[in-house]
Automatic annotation (TrEMBL):
Substrate binds at residues 11, 72, 82-83, 154, 188, 211-212, 221-222. This is Diaminopimelate epimerase. Catalyzes the stereoinversion of LL-2,6-diaminopimelate (L,L-DAP) to meso-diaminopimelate (meso-DAP), a precursor of L-lysine and an essential component of the bacterial peptidoglycan. The active site is at 81, 81 (proton donor), 220 (proton acceptor). One of its GO terms (cellular component) is cytosol. Belongs to the diaminopimelate epimerase family. Its EC number is 5.1.1.7. SUPFAM superfamilies: Diaminopimelate epimerase-like. The record marks 156, 211 as: Could be important to modulate the pK values of the two catalytic cysteine residues. It is an enzyme of class 5 (isomerase). The gene is dapF. GO terms for molecular function: diaminopimelate epimerase activity. It comes from Micromonospora eburnea.
Length: 281
């Protein structure tokens, strides 16, 4: 089967073109593809399927030709993936499956319709507007934190580190402890620290993330949107632009009255053939 490998600020994906939804994509196959030793390796899989050919995309088929079928590397699937959407759009454009649109290129996702545009070298996607929830607890080793739950189509918990503690000091080799009663479907946990002022923005935040279904990643687009929403709330602003630095680079989130745009690099690095039977354990 043909595949393309791509990433957005180091959040990497195996892209599978499957326009007619003919591929029997299972959790096991996704996990095997994402295996960094026995497979291609990735934080997740993006299946490129016509909205009309996917049961979860068909309702949006009148508005978007393509459905982003996103899966985490452990074989679970998620409602939304911000970097995935940006890489998905890069793939559509470079493979000629779509052309840039002034009105924004529509893509169907499990969290609804998103629109994308090319901004110079970057791809920007209009995400679901982050919805702030209640305070919630997280623990990492001996560190107990209270963060803010945020929904960006998928669930997040944004935790600011206490002053004096460096992001680099965190051990994110295991999932932070959270209350499963508060997050019954699991949660992506972001840890943040303030960054130096960045020209042209209203704030700058440094972030690391432990993703539901993928462990620590170099970047999380929906996580960056969640972090930006908390930064704006803390600054008592309804709108603004926040630079979010992740281990894989910089994302820029712009929140206005009713929209949230996520922008940053989205790169395709390789195309090849994968022998699916060889992957199956
Ligand atoms: N890396 C993604 C988020 C992927 C989904 C997440 N792991 C979940 O299960 O909700 C992004 O860029 O947003």
């Amino acid at each position: 089967m043909e595949f393309t490998k791509g990433h957005g600020t180091g959040n990497d994906f195996v892209i599978l073109p499957d326009p007619d939804g003919a591929l029997d994509l299972t959790p096991r196959l996704v996990a095997a593809l994402c295996d960094r030793r026995r497979g291609i390796g990735g934080d997740g899989v993006l299946r490129v399927v016509r909205a009309a050919k996917h049961p979860e995309g068909v309702a949006l088929a009148g508005e978007a030709e393509w459905f982003m079928d996103y899966w985490n590397s452990d074989g679970s699937y998620a409602e939304m993936c911000g970097n995935g959407a940006r890489v998905f759009v890069r793939y559509l454009l470079e493979s000629g499956l779509a052309v840039p649109s002034g009105a924004g290129l529509p893509v169907a996702t499990r969290a609804g319709l998103v629109r994308a545009r090319v901004e110079g070298e970057d791809i920007a996607v209009e995400m679901p507007r982050p919805r702030l929830g209640d305070p919630a607890a997280a623990a990492l080793g001996g560190l107990a934190l209270t963060g803010t739950a945020v929904y960006v189509g998928n669930p997040h918990l944004v935790c600011a580190l206490p002053a004096g503690l460096e992001l680099a000091a965190l051990d994110l080799t295991r999932m932070p402890d959270v209350d499963p009663a508060v997050f019954p479907a699991g949660v992506n946990v972001e840890f943040t620290a303030p960054g130096e002022p960045v020209a042209g923005t209203d704030g700058h935040v440094l972030m690391r993330v432990y993703e539901r279904g993928s462990a620590e990643t170099l970047s999380c687009g929906t996580g960056a949107c969640a972090v930006a929403a908390v930064a704006l709330r803390d600054a008592e602003r309804d709108a603004g632009t926040i630079a979010v630095d992740v281990p894989g680079g910089r994302l820029t989130v712009t929140v206005t009255g009713d929209s949230c745009w996520l922008a940053g690099p989205a790169v395709l690095i390789a195309t090849g053939e994968v022998a699916l039977p060889a992957l199956r354990p």
